[in-house]
Amino acid sequence: MVFYIVQMASASVVIYGNAYSCTTRQDILKYFRNCTNDSAETYERGVHLLLSKGKDPSFPTIPYAKKVDFVEKKSFISVITGRDRPLTANEIKHLQYNINPNVLGKSLMLGFGQVASSSKIRKYFQKGAELSGNQIKNFSDHLMSQDLPAPKLMDAHHLFQINL
Q: Residues near 115 by Cβ (< 8 Å), separated by ≥ 6?
C-alpha cells in the first residue's frame, strides 16, 4: 500500500506542478501550490516509511563523467540508422522512472483480475498484467544492454505467473 501511495504522490507532484505552471489566477495558483506541497510531503513520508521497512525505492545513480563529451556526428541520432549508441542521462532516467508505474499497474491488474466477476473482464486484466510485465522487461533489458542497472523491483509478482 505504501508503494501505491508513493507512486500516486509522485504522479501528483508532476500533474499539480504542470497545472500550477499553466495558470495565472492567484487563487488557482495558491490551490495548486498547496496541492503540490501536500503531494510532495506525502511522497517524502512514503519514501521514508519504505526505507524504514527495508524497501529502498531509490533509482540507481549515474556516475559523474570524468570528461565532457559533445555530440560531433549526425550518427548520434542512431534510431534512424539502426545503430546503437549510449543512452543519455535523460533517457536513462525516463526508462527507470517508467518501470515502477508498470510494476504498480501489473499488481493492480492481477488483483482486479482475481476478483472480476466475468471471464471476459478477467482476460482483459490478464492482458493488462502481461502488457505491464512486458514493459518492465523491455525497459529493464534496454538498461541492462547498456551495462546499466535496472531499478530494484518492488513487485512481489515479477517472479510468478498467476493464471487468472
A: none
* Rounded-to-integer distance, Cα 97 and Cα 9, Å: 14
Ramachandran region, residue 60 (left: φ > 0; alpha: ψ -120 to 50; beta: rest): beta
153 closest CA partner among 102, 87, 89, 91: 102
- pTM of the full predicted structure? 0.69
**DSSP result, 101-157:** HHHHHHHHHHHHHHH-SSHHHHHHHHHHHHHHHHHHHHHHHHHHHTT-PPPPP--TT
Terminal CA-CA length for the chain: 22
- Looking at per-residue pLDDT, the higher value among 26 and 60 belongs to 26
pLDDT digits (tens, 9 = 90+) for 74-86: 555 555 555 567 7
